[in-house]
Every structure is written in structure tokens, then in C-alpha cells.
UniProtKB/TrEMBL annotation:
Catalytic activity: L-seryl-[protein] + ATP = O-phospho-L-seryl-[protein] + ADP + H(+); L-threonyl-[protein] + ATP = O-phospho-L-threonyl-[protein] + ADP + H(+)
Top-level taxon: Eukaryota
GO molecular function, one term: ATP binding
GO cellular component, one term: membrane
Topology versus the membrane: Single-pass type I membrane protein
Protein localization: Membrane
Protein name per the record: Receptor-like serine/threonine-protein kinase
PROSITE patterns hit by this protein: BULB_LECTIN (PS50927), PROTEIN_KINASE_DOM (PS50011), PROTEIN_KINASE_ST (PS00108)
Amino acid sequence: MAPCRFSMSIIINFIIITLFPFSVTAQESSNRNVTLGSSIVANSNSTWTSPSGEFAFGFREVSPGAFLLAIWFDQLTNKTIVWSANRDEPVPVGSTVRLSSDGTLELFDQRNRWLWANQATSGTVAYAAMLDTGNLVLASNTSAILWQSFDFPTDTLLPTQVLNKEGALYSSISPTNFSKGRFKFTLQADGDLVLISRSLQSEEHLSTYWSSDTIESGFQLIFNNFGSINLVRQNGTLLRPLFESGPLVGQFYHRLKLDHDGVLRHYVHPKSANSSLAWSVRDFEPSNICRAVMERHTGGGACGFNSYCSIQAEGRPSCDCPLGYYPRGGGLSGCTPEFVQHRCDHQQGQDAQSFGLMQMFNIDWPFVDYTKLRNVEEDTCRQSCLSDCFCAIAIYSDRGCFKKSLPFSNGRFDSGFAGKALIKFRINKTLTSNPDTTASGRESSTTTLTTTLSVLLGCAGLLFLLSSFFFVFYLKRTKSMMVKRSHVRPAGVSMISSFSFKEVQEAANGFNEELGRGACSIVYRGTLKNDGKVVAVKKLHKIFEHADDEFKAEVSSISRTNHKNLVQLLGYCDEGQNRILVYEFMTNGSLATFLFQKSPRPSWYTRVQIAFAIARGICYLHEDCSVPIIHCDIKPQNVLLDETFAPKIADFGLAKLLKADQTRTITGIRGTKGYVAPEWFRNMPITVKVDVYSFGIMLLELMCCRRSYEPDVEDEGEAVLADWAYDCYQQGALDLLVVGDEEARSDMKTLEIYVKTAIWCIQEDSTLRPHMNIVMHMLQGSMQVPTPPDPTAFVR
């Protein structure tokens, strides 16, 4: 039977991917057809609507007195625009769009000057129609489509729409300026699907910051009617999903948009009577636009020149200016210094007394250094920048000094960056003369300036001394704090200690205080001799067939991490038959002990905080590690709690590292019964979605304060937590999950969000599970959680 099911699956996928998107005729009721000679005038509130009324075509006012000829979602409060004919040149009141007698769609301004027309068609146009798909078409008497807006997208794709080779989406300049912006999404002639940054002035391509890596393979990008966005080969078979299936299109509006910030987002919106609900983001690429847009030779990076970028919810960048700089035009336009930079052509050096350096931590401007000083102290770096008229910023990191002149680019906030930015500012900038001031102007102001200076000099000197004192105090205090922080910062691979067996044995006091044990290891309490730090010593006690592989996997995977919700590996021992790992000690033990204790019940607020923190840690493993990591054994026993009950994911012995070009891998079954995703048992390639499944089960356990399987409950229907939770959700009885938990019952809104998110996570069809970055947005409330289907409904 297996070959038969496989063949049927191929046939079904072929139909879904290739047939559903295409429209070969304009099959609409005749009373919605627009006849030749029809027209619409800007500001007349007249539109051509689709039969269902979901889409409308006409003029939309985008700024006072300025209109776009556009298509939009007409039943939503914000009338979201999905296409426009004149995005770069809005037209004034009184402008007209007309379907002429020869079947040409033409746009004229209020003076009847021709501005735009659809491209020539082969055939005789009989009518126009706004379709329920959001597609505006010109059709013949036989309903054959001769021209369609779907062939000329702006920044958005809709379900049933296809992006062919050399087709492209262009971002807007800003949320309110619909002109072509800095970013482009295109399926290149070579078959590679890419996101590109571009120059607004020359339209030159600056850098490719995301790619599907499908050169010579990609043929079409198809947004099918099931909410899935797929890249296919020329024979119609699936090459790779761009974004996996979302909520059914029949219940949700969908759109794929290249936003003004360069992020490609898949939005969904419920089709409900409450049209004031906001669009929510289902998925997006790239995961971190601040890191993705790295314009090494030209361009200012994600936020423009002299700025720095930090990532927010839904992949949205926040663009900020360093100290002493102000925004040029907001958004992605970069920053300008508040003071006049010294002109190097007037002197060889620079008066260091006229300038100071402000420091900012965790901010870096990589690349484009005009000078690099190696193995120097920070003071040397400071003096070098202060006395150098070219130097605007110096990055000091790992005893390296990287000097940059204006403009500097690719700025980004990075919590893992241990260096600092030293930003030059002019101390007496308020008295700096404009370099363009004429000699006569300077002479006429000499007396006034001298008088003013003589009056202010005493006060200014005192103020400067006081400011200097507090500034030096601030620098010393900040430096001291950074030194303290550096002692607890998780170390990189090269910084992890290698212990001898004797050292570990002494630290663990002969391995006599056991903290816990697993199938292949025992964990002991220990104390490091050099600093008295309490540690957890994990000793592999079974020399089984793959012991070395598991040991190396744990060291390799966790040594690549640096996150507050991952346990810190301090060192290891690999001597003879001894395989030992030394971890930071977690005061409050495992989440399993905390969660499943008989009494007292952990507080609702603490459980909610723990759930979100665990999601953040898993998201880091999947999205932000230099090499993505699949943990493979997410469960309460492998989450440890520190003294504040902050969770840290542990036990990476089963973890799987993904290569840079991998999204899935083949491996033998791993994990713990009850938390293992179904694909493990079906001999299918595994992806990061196996961790999503395990997290979903654990999330239900956190919400309900019980194990995922309890055979001794009175009602058999409650034995399997996942099944019971879905039944309660479907019946509108979520309060049954938290009987006796008054804290949880008083916060039913959060409970519903978390349970719905968990149900999405435990879908047996892995393609329906959200990625962990989306899970985080759901739990945060930054995106709406769609109605989840029955987790077993899609099982084949």
C-alpha cells in the first residue's frame, strides 16, 4: 500500500501546487463586468468591485489631495492596498481612469493629460472585471484574459498569483510613501529567488541579502489557494516552500508583501464581521534584517548611513542614531552629525582637546575600516581617534581598534558583541564657526563674540570641569560594570576549559553528591577549586555504542551558543574512558520537579514567564546560532531553573547541527516518548519543527500543571493532555484545564492564546507548525493566533 499512497501524494501535491493558482478565464457574473467607455474620477467614491465585494478598484487618497489608482481589500477598515498603477506619481483630485472604446485602460490627470495605460493586448477587449482573487482583468467576449494586474505586481502577491522569471516586487519608500523603495524581491532569469537592496538614486543593485539558492532550478513562485507559497521547477514539481501552508484561504485573507523595511512578510487576516482586526504576520524572511543587509562596499546597510539597526517583533528593524547624530529623514534614511566635522585638508592632525569620545556598548559598525590597530589598549585606541581628523568612530574589541570615517555603514545592535563603539563629538560645538562664513562676517562679530566669551568663560570653565568629573566617573563606573559582566558572559568554544579527570573528581568531591540521572549519565554537585564556583558535573556512565558521538555533539552544539536561556557550559573532560561535562549549577533544579510537584502549585505568572523564555531560547537555537541547532529532546527534565526561576535549556546530547545550506536532516530516532514528533516514526527527514512539537506538548504541561500523559485520571478522555486540551478548546471549555487554579482562571485571555499556540505547535503535519519566531510573536500577543485545526486532521 505504501507505493500507492506515495503516488497519490505526488498527484495531490502536483494539483495543489500547479493547478489551483492559474486562471485562464474571467468567470464572473455579468452584472459585475465593466463595459467599454466606463470611467472613475478621483474623489468621486466610485469603484469597480468584485462580486463578493472583497476587493475594489479605483482611486485611494494616500496624502491630502494625492491619489493612487489602486486595488484594495474593500471590506477591511484600513482598506489595505495590494496593487497600484501609478505608485511613483500620485494624481490630483479630478483625475480619471477610463476603459476606452478600443479596450485600453488609461489614466488622465485633471487637465486630461495622459499619464498611464495598460500594455497592449493581443485580442479584442470586451469588458473589464474586478475578480474575487484581487485580480483586475481585461477580457474578450469568450472570457479569455487579455491583460491582468496579477502580471504586474507592485509590492504584494495574493493567493492564486504567480511570480514568473524576472518578475519582481519592489518595496515602498515608507508606510505612507508608496513610491519604489530600497528593496526588491525577484525570481531571477537564472532561477534564483532573491531579496536585493538597491540604490534609490541609480537603481543599482547593492547587495543580495537573502537567496533561495535555486540557480538553474527555480521556475515559478506560486501562491496557491491553500495559503502556501512555493517555488517550483519547470515540470511543476515542488522545489522548496518559501512559506508553508497557513490558515485556509476560505477563512482568512492572505497577502505576501515586501515591506518598506526590506522584510518579506506573509500576512493573514480573519474573514470575520469585525473588520477592524489587524493583520498578523504568519512568517517572514529574513529573520534578522539588521544582520542580513550587509553592504560591504556601497550603501548604508539596513537603516542607512551613520545609523544602527536593532531587531524588534516580526523582524521589524528599529533604526536609531548614535550619540551626537540626528535622523536625516526618519525611517531608513540614516543620520547626520550634529556638529561640523574638522576638515583634514587644513591641517595634518587634529586638536584632540576639542573633541571627546562617548562610548556605546553592544553596537558595531562592521566592515569598511580605513585603519586597524592590533593588540592595543583602549586608551591607545581613544587617543588615536581623537588626534585623527578622519576618525569619526572607533570600534574597540578584543584589543583591536577599528577606525571609521564618515559616512559609516551597516550599524547594528548585537547583544552578543562584547566590544564598544567610541563615538567622537565636539566639546565646544556650540561655538564652532560655520566653514562657509565670510571674512567680513567674522570681523563684524569679533567684538560681540569676545565680550560674550569673557562673560561666559568663568561659568563655562566651571561647568566643563564639573561635566568632565561626572563624565570620567560615568566612564569608570560603566567600565567596571562591563568588566563584571565579562566574567559571567558565556564563553565561546576557545574559552571553554579542558579539565583533567583528577581535577573534575576533586571538584565533585569523589562524585558523592548526586543531583540526578538520565539514561546515559549521572549529574553530581561540585565546586571548582580555583574560584569556589558551584557547578553541575555530568558524567557519562555508560560506554555505549555512540557515547563519543553524543559527548562530542553536546560539546560542539552548546559551545556555539550564547544566550541567557541556555545553560552555560564551563568545561569538559575527555580523558581515557571518561567523558564529563561541567555546567553552571542551577539552584532550583529541573522544570519537571518544579512543575509536577504535589504542592504548592507554581504561580500562573511564573509559568507564563517560563514558557515564553523557553520559546526564546529555542528560537535562538533555530534562528540566531552561527550553525542552526535542532535540540531533539525538548522536555521539562531538560529545562533547568536558576535562583530566580529563569529557565535554561540543557542536555544537548542529542542535538543535531544543521549545515549552512540545510533546512532538514536524516537521523535515527531521538528524544523522549510523549514529546517526540510523529515524523520521527515515519522515517521522514527532520527539521527544526520537531523541537516545535516538543515545545507545544511542554507548553500544555506548563499551562495545566500536569504531565502530558496521566493514565490514572478518572475520565479516560483526560489521560492524553494534547487530546483533552483540543477537546476543551473546541467546546469552549478551557476553564476545565485549570480547575482549582484561580490565578489562571482570572487570566483566560492569556490561557486561550497559549493553548491555541500549543495546538498549532503539535500539528501532526509538520508543515502546519509555525516556526519558533512566530510562536514567540503569538505568545507575546504581537500577532493574532489563528483558529487551529484538529492536530490529527491532516494525517495521511
